[in-house]
Design brief:
- The protein is of the alpha/beta class.
- The protein folds into two domains: 143 residues, Rossmann fold (3-Layer(aba) Sandwich), CATH 3.40.50; 112 residues, Arc Repressor Mutant, subunit A, CATH 1.10.10.10.
- The protein has nine helices and 14 strands.
- A five-stranded parallel sheet has the order 3-2-4-5-6, sandwiched between helices. A four-stranded antiparallel sheet has the order 8-9-10-11, with helices on one face.
- Helix 3 links the parallel strand 4 and strand 5.
- Helix 6 crosses helix 7 and helix 6 crosses helix 8.
- The longest helix is centred in the middle third of the chain and has 20 residues.
- It is elongated, with a radius of gyration of 20 Å.
Length: 259
C-alpha cells in the first residue's frame, strides 16, 4: 500500500442523491491508489469504478452514465487534461470533474480549471478532503440540474443544456468557466459578490490561488457579452472586495449611451 500517497482524516457525513447511488468514475493508473479512493468513497455511500487508462474510461462513459469524474493528470495512454477535453467537447458532458494529482503548480491548476475542471485536489490524498470535495461538487451539480433550462436576462438568454448564452439571438463564444461565471453573475445580479464567494461558487476553490484568474475571467465575460449600460447591465468592480453586476434601467441607459 503506497502510504506516502495518503493521509488519513475522519470521514465526513454520507451523502447520496435521493435513493439512487451516485456513480463515480476514478481514472488512476496506480492500482493501490485507485483501490483506496474507491474504498473511501464507497464507505461514504457512493458507487465507484476505477480505470487505469483514458481510453478505457472513454469507452465506458460512451455507454454508461457517471455523476462525477475523479481524474489523475499522468495516465499512460493519454493525459488527464486530454481526457477532460474529451469529456467536455466530444462527449459533451457537464458532469463535475475533480482533478486528483501530484501536479499542483499554479499554471497546472489554472490549465485544468480553464479546460473545464470543476475542482483540483493535490496528493497526498486525504480521506476527509476527498469525500468533502466530492460532496460539494455533487451538491452544486444537483442545484444546476434543478435550474430551468432557459433563463432570460434581456438582451441575454441562457440555455443551460447547451451551455450557451445568446445576446440578441446571437450565440456568444464562451469557455466552460466563462459560461459558469456569466450565469453566476446573472443569477446574482444586484448582489455584492466577494472574491471568496465567486471563487468557491464557480471554481470550488479558495481565492488565494485564483485572484488573477477571477479578474481575467470577469474581464473576458464583460468583453465577450458586451456588458454595458446600453445593454441593460454594468459590471462594477468593488475595491478590495469583488464585483457586482447591476441592472440599468432603460432611461438611464439611453442617457449614458448618447452622452
Amino acid at each position: 500500500m503506497p502510504g506516502e500517497l495518503f493521509e488519513r482524516q475522519e470521514i465526513v457525513e454520507e451523502t447520496n442523491w435521493g435513493d439512487v447511488a451516485v456513480h463515480i468514475a476514478i481514472l488512476e493508473d496506480d492500482a493501490d491508489v485507485g483501490v483506496v479512493m474507491k474504498r473511501w468513497l464507497e464507505e461514504a455511500g457512493y458507487r465507484c469504478q476505477v480505470f487505469n487508462s483514458g481510453k478505457k474510461l472513454a469507452s465506458r462513459a460512451a455507454r454508461e452514465s457517471f455523476d462525477l469524474y475523479l481524474i489523475d493528470w499522468s495516465i499512460p495512454d493519454m493525459s488527464g487534461l486530454d481526457v477532460l477535453k474529451w469529456i467536455r467537447h466530444e462527449h459533451r458532458s457537464n458532469v463535475p470533474v475533480l482533478f486528483v494529482t501530484v501536479r499542483n503548480a499554479e499554471k497546472d491548476v489554472i490549465s485544468a480549471l480553464e479546460s473545464g475542471a470543476d475542482d483540483f485536489m493535490s496528493k497526498p490524498v486525504r480521506r476527509g478532503e476527498l469525500v468533502a470535495r466530492t460532496q460539494a461538487l455533487l451538491r452544486r451539480a444537483k442545484r444546476l440540474i434543478a435550474e430551468p433550462d432557459q433563463q432570460s436576462f434581456p438582451p441575454y438568454r441562457v440555455v443551460s443544456s447547451a451551455r450557451q448564452i445568446f445576446k440578441d439571438d446571437s450565440a456568444v463564444d464562451l469557455t466552460e468557466k466563462e459560461f459558469d461565471l456569466a450565469v453566476f453573475l446573472f443569477n446574482n445580479a444586484g448582489k455584492l459578490l466577494s472574491r471568496q464567494y465567486i471563487s468557491e461558487s464557480v471554481w470550488s476553490k479558495e481565492v488565494s490561488s485564483l485572484s488573477r484568474t477571477i479578474d481575467t475571467h470577469v474581464s473576458r465575460v464583460r468583453k465577450k457579452l458586451d456588458i454595458a449600460p446600453q445593454n441593460g447591465f454594468r459590471l462594477v468592480p468593488v475595491y478590495n472586495i469583488g464585483y457586482r453586476l447591476e441592472r440599468v434601467n432603460n432611461v438611464a441607459a439611453e442617457v449614458m449611451a448618447v452622452s
